[in-house]
Amino acid sequence: MNRHEGPVTILFVHSSDELYGSDRVLLELVRRLDRSRFAPLVAVPCDLSYRRHLSKALAEAGVRCLHVDMGVLRRRYFGWRGVGLYAWRLALGTIRLARLIQRERVALVHSNTGAVWSGALAARLTRRPHLWHIHEIVTHPVSVRRAIAWMSTRFSCRVVAISQAVRDHLAADAPGHANRIMVIPDAVDTECFRPENDGAALRHTWHVQPDETLVGQVGRISAWKGQEDFLAAAAQVAVRRADVRFVVVGDVVPGEDDRREYLRARAAAQGLNDRIIWAGFRPDTPQVMAALDLLVLPSRRPEPFGMVLLEAMATGKPVVAADHGGPREIVVHGETGLLVPPGEPTALANAIVELAGQAALRQQMGAAARLRAETTFGLLPYVAAFQALYSDLLEASAPW
Ligand code: UDP
Hints:
There is one protein chain. By secondary structure, the protein is an alpha/beta fold. The chain has 2 domains: 199 residues, Glycogen Phosphorylase B (Rossmann fold); 177 residues, Rossmann fold (3-Layer(aba) Sandwich). The strands form 2 sheets. Strands 3-2-1-4-5-6-7 form a 7-stranded parallel beta sheet, with helices on both faces. Strands 10-9-8-11-12-13 form a 6-stranded parallel beta sheet, sandwiched between helices. The termini are close together. Bound molecules: uridine-5'-diphosphate.
């Protein structure tokens, strides 16, 4: 194949079929690629019973997407027996992807998240340039943390980290190879998330009065995202202010329903039943952000990025986030929101009370937040940065 004949095919190998952070970023990128130059083909796994939100959205955007049985690094493989099973699935996935690369005459492979390794191995087998897009900060087990840093820097022409925090974390485990890691911060669709969006209908559905302050956490329900700290803070706020309501948007990973039920029981025990809304997963996050007065992200471990912060900010809402990881790069403390010490519900409660009581301050911070989202985290430069990178890698590689 001659690279000047038409668009070159890029294979995106992704680790899930949901619509959370890394899924959304991939969707936004591939749907905006210049189709006269790049033809995206996306491979998603089928090892969990996903509701297939991403593959459906890709189909709607006219992007080809295939479900491929490939090994995805998951916690259930951490252990001696799991390692063997993972290695077997990884090998099979690699062969499947290598065949796909040959059949579809793929020119470049882009692995999306550190949890998919088959794409990197298949690219090496078929001698295609490979880019690894790392979206996570894995701290333990240490062997997995090191393995991701080792693999990503040895099996890629370039590693793209979604924040400086992710880059620093990877680089610490890849001495001598850190020059391969660059940062392209995630970006937000500022046309879709806008201050003009109307959240009134959703507030009405949730029975939230116009004069009540609605504070929400949006994202996957998991131990490290800190929903438990949000509930503990909510319980403190509830006794200090009668006009604040809370909403938890998002759901657990398939198969972890116990965690949701545990949190609901905790909220009930804290007397929050009349004050809290359990919204489940919502595909309409632009409306969700518009319905909120304040977004919180009290993650217990450092967030690799924190897309929900940007989405709220682009909607003109102030945010309160745990002061570590990606949020430090997104939130300007005291200007576009507040940063609070991680794992301290009282500090979170104080920040919520401070902003709940000051509509003018919320408005002022929201306006600054919108400006920051537009000027620093826009999608156009984001897509342009990836396209430039693809061109560089294709230019540098031997004819495939
Ligand atoms: N999200 C969604 N519906 C929900 C909860 C979350 O569409 O019910 C989206 C949210 O809009 C954001 C993403 O999931 O785009 C979460 O990204 P973030 O970086 O905050 O967290 P991650 O999922 O990557 O850990």
